[in-house]
Amino acid sequence: MPVDPAGDITDTPTPVTAPAAGPKPAKPKSAKVMAAFKRYKIAAFVVGWGLLLLCATMVLKYFFDLPQFVAIWGPIHGALFVGYVIIAFDLAYKDRWSPLGTLWVLVAGTIPFVSFVAEKQVQRKVLAGGRM
User: Fold this and answer.
1) For residue 128, how many C-alpha atoms fall within 13 Å in the half-sphere facing its CB?
2) CA neighbours closer than 13 Å in the CB half-sphere of residue 105
């Protein structure tokens, strides 16, 4: 016999409620994908700031006639960007991104401030279980 909250025995059956319908929980990513994602986050941060610094050195070169700063920072930034491309391809391969999503992330690394936007999009999609 069903018992109501007050402790009395009742003749009415207790209603059965269905579980709430909502979005499916995200499938957890593998350890390899998460390790590649952590490397990507660091690379995107470093290359994003490196690109901003490169823009500052270009202002020094073209407006103040100080080309030595670009001569020093340009090759460093180039090497950092090559590392970013390799790390982004690694994450794209492990997380099975689409070619268009991969291209978006690579192009984002060449435009000031956009690498930060792309990194946030990648973070949201990777942690939610989606793909680029």
Assistant:
1) 10
2) 29
0.70 surpassed by pTM: yes
3: DSSP letter: B
Structure confidence by residue, pLDDT tens digits, 35-62: 999 999 999 999 999 999 999 999 999 9
Residue type, 95: D
Closest by CA to 47, choosing from 116, 125, 100, is 116
Phi-psi region of 112 (alpha: psi -120 to 50; beta: other; left: phi over 0): beta
Amino acid at 53: L
Give every residue of the chain whose pLDDT is below 70, as ranges: 1-26
Q: How far is CA 80 from CA 30, 42, 63, 100, in A?
A: 27, 11, 25, 23
Whose tokens are 């579980």? That residue is 19
